[in-house]
Design goal:
- The chain is an alpha/beta fold.
- It folds into five domains: about 1-65, no CATH class; about 115-240, Response regulator (Rossmann fold, 3-Layer(aba) Sandwich), CATH 3.40.50.2300; about 245-385, Rossmann fold, CATH 3.40.50.300; about 390-475, Helicase, Ruva Protein, domain 3, CATH 1.10.8; about 490-665, Ribosomal Protein S5, domain 2, CATH 3.30.230.
- Helix content is about 45%, strand content about 15%.
- It has 25 helices and 23 strands.
- The strands form six sheets. The chain has a seven-stranded mixed sheet with strand order 16-17-15-14-19-22-23. It has a five-stranded parallel sheet with strand order 2-1-3-4-5, with helices on both faces.
- β20 and β21 (about 610) form a beta hairpin.
- α17 (about 390-405) packs across α18 (about 420-430) and α21 crosses α22.
- It is elongated and about 100 Å long.
- About 40% of the residues are buried.
């Protein structure tokens, strides 16, 4: 019985539903192809029995297409001075990042505010002069040509935003001109002007890529309106055009929030979509409608949610897209990110292209190195290097703490955090290049303060958060300095590596036992790291006498090298010198100083090669309490770009030969 009533209800409602959709269709503006698809689908629905499943699938599809922002934009705010102010007010430091972003925005802005160049192609002199006059008066840069051939000559010299061309002309007519221009200069828009008698060829022209057509005699108001429309549209595409920005750096270094700030300064909507762990292309691009329960993909869904087609769209963690991704992730990402390709983005559910090129895409990654070459080469990578302790303290004092205080409703109670207290939080409770754990720590303290206020309403003064009180709020320290207080040992050497979480210290351990000349490797080792270990061992064996080691030390022995914990380094090769030093320490029986840390790739003969991530590695050394850092001589120039803060508290020595590392490390 229940079932019957349901169906009845649907039958009564269905035609209403369809006529509502028709109404929306008639009132809206849609691209040609979409209009065609919609009309066809609605026609089909009219002849479909509303009680069959297909009907409701069709209704949903039409409703979905109608609801997309095919022509809705937000107006851009292109005030560069304001952009600079917002970035400087909201973000501490990151000078190099801000500069790069402002340069990028400036170039895009310039493209979009530059004069709009129009070429009028018309053989009748009076009509030509009229159009030229009206358009110049409206502020456009206007050139004229008397036929298609002359127009092509001009288009060769200058790039036009728009060509307005008569359809009927001698020599080369408008249609031929249209075809050639679309082939050679796809960015140039074309409007054809037709006589009443040739409306059908105007439709043909639209199929070949003209954006519009005007009928003769030309209504000058209409001309102005249409040209202005095309100019406005182009403006949005210009700012999104150009290389794709990719923010690369460890977590918590401000990538997402700077992306949001860019959207704010441009007055654009902001979308953030993480692709980490995505396995299926359909998640991004939807399922075909033939699937039961098919849906549009996340990209289109997000665009629909913000209801404009020109948001700032952040695709987060593109280096973490699922390993077992079905389809080729790089080509899918390129198709989404690249303005040339995404102008024809087809979501499988929609089945008609949605032009994504007005959206400004920004990608983020923790390790761009892991991205496939073609994708990496198409992006303009901006590195977010991570912060020193001093920078973190400043950011905490000026940004994170005031924000957390506000968010926890504590403003009237003005809790006080001292600098020493923050340093304590950073040293004892965090181990990161960014600010996530620190922010979480501060938030945790704020929650406890809020509870204190509520549980004893009369007591108005709150305890100060300083070096001594931190532990009361945060419990026992999570990280003890790995260096201070640790004993120097034989075969254990401190190395500096660079992973996607920023710089890190690792303790390379080497030990030996009776055996059959095997090299055993364990820990978080990538294949490059394994090769470095082999190289280091061969080096020590071949140079044994110079380190006063018995050349036969490997006979009847197994050697075991272990690199504990931590993420797999981005630059496995840079542990070469550390491994060699651990082996020399083991073979000579001399203890290695814990507070000496090193990084460097090495050749078989022991030459020390340049490595990456120096700044991050130095920060890791500072965090861990290292005193002396050994760097490849070939990295000496990198230090010139660093601030005094980056090397504060560290004695830096440069080495050329792997053997020197042992001299500076072993007791
Ligand atoms: P990511 O996207 O790199 O993981 P987030 O953008 O989430 O990092 O940043 C983490 C937190 O640190 C945010 O609350 C952000 O506002 C803050 N933050 C990061 N860098 C700065 C900075 N330079 N100045 C002020 N706040 C910052």
């Amino acid at each position: 019985m229940g079932l019957f009533t349901k169906i009845e209800k649907k039958e009564i409602q269905a035609p209403d539903e369809l006529s509502g959709l028709k109404d929306r269709f008639e009132k809206g503006h849609f691209p040609e192809e979409v209009s065609r698809t919609l009309s066809k689908e609605m026609e089909r629905l009219e002849n479909t029995d509303p009680s069959v499943a297909e009907y409701s699938i069709g209704i949903h599809y039409v409703g979905y297409l109608l609801s997309l922002p095919w022509n809705r934009y937000t107006e851009d705010n292109l005030d560069m001075a304001r952009a600079e102010r917002v970035l400087n007010e909201k973000y501490y430091g990151l000078k190099h990042v801000k500069e790069r972003i402002l340069d990028f925005l400036a170039a895009r802005t310039l493209c979009s505010i530059e004069a709009f160049h129009v070429l009028v192609v018309e053989d009748e002199e009076i009509a030509r002069n009229n159009m030229e006059f009206v358009l110049k008066k409206a502020g456009y840069a206007v050139d004229t040509a008397v036929n298609g051939i002359k127009a092509l000559e001009k288009a060769k010299e200058k790039s036009y935003d728009l060509i307005l061309s008569d359809l009927k002309m001698e020599k080369m007519d408008g249609m031929q001109l249209l075809e050639t221009v679309k082939k050679r200069y796809p960015q140039t828009e074309i409007v054809l002007i037709t006589g009443y008698a040739t409306v059908s060829s105007a439709v043909d022209a639209m199929k070949k890529g003209a954006v519009h057509y005007l009928t003769k005699p030309i209504n000058l108001d209409e001309l102005r309106r249409i040209v202005a429309q095309i100019r406005d549209k182009k403006k949005y595409f210009q700012i999104a055009r150009g290389p794709i920005l990719c923010f690369d750096g460890p977590p918590g270094t401000g990538k997402t929030s700077i992306g949001k700030a860019i959207a704010d300064t441009l007055d654009r909507k902001f979308i953030r979509l993480s692709v980490a762990g995505m396995r299926d292309e359909a998640e991004l691009r939807g399922h075909r409608r033939t699937y039961v329960g098919a849906m549009a993909g996340r990209i289109i869904n997000e665009i629909r949610r913000v209801d404009v087609r020109n948001p700032v769209f952040m695709l987060d963690e593109i280096d973490k897209i699922g390993q077992d991704f079905r389809g080729d992730p790089a080509s899918v990402l390129l198709e989404i990110l690249d303005p040339e390709q995404n102008a024809h983005f087809v979501d499988h559910y929609l089945d008609v292209p949605f032009n994504l090129s007005a959206a400004m895409f920004i990608a983020t990654a923790n390790a761009v190195e892991n991205l496939p070459g073609p994708l990496r080469d198409r992006m303009e990578v901006i590195h977010f290097p991570g912060y020193t302790e001093k920078e973190k303290v400043r950011i905490a004092m000026d940004y994170l703490i005031p924000r957390q205080i506000r968010e926890h409703g504590l403003s009237w109670h003005s809790p006080r955090f001292t600098e020493e207290g923050i340093v304590r939080i950073i040293r004892d409770y965090t181990r990161e290049a960014g600010l996530r754990q620190l922010e979480r720590g501060v938030a945790g303290i704020c929650r406890k303060l809020a509870r204190m206020i509520l549980s004893s309403p009369k007591e108005t003064s709150l305890p100060q958060i300083d070096e001594r009180t931190v532990e009361r709020f945060m419990g026992p320290p999570v990280y003890k300095s790995e260096i201070a207080g640790a004993k120097n040992r034989i075969g254990v050497v401190t190395g500096l590596v660079w992973s996607e979480f920023g710089g890190e210290i690792v303790f390379v351990e080497a030990t030996r036992m009776k055996g059959t000349q095997q090299l055993i490797l364990t820990g978080s080792l990538g294949s490059i790291l394994k090769e470095s270990a082999q190289t280091a061992l061969s080096f020590v064996r071949s140079q044994a006498p110079s380190f006063a080691i018995d050349p036969d030390f490997f006979k009847d022995m197994d050697i075991h090298i272990h690199i504990p914990a931590g993420a797999t380094p981005k630059d496995g090769a840079s542990a070469g010198v550390t491994i060699a030093t651990a082996l020399i320490s083991l073979m000579t029986g001399r203890c290695a100083r814990r507070d000496v840390a090193m990084t460097g790739e090495m050749t078989l003969s022991g030459r020390v090669l340049r490595v990456g991530g120096i700044r991050q590695k130095l920060h890791a050394a500072q965090r861990a309490g290292v005193r002396r850092v050994l760097l490849p001589r070939r990295n000496e120039n990198d230090l010139k770009d660093l601030a005094s803060e980056d090397v504060e508290g560290l004695e830096i020595l440069f080495i050329e030969e792997a053997g020197e590392a042992a001299q500076f490390t072993l007791e």
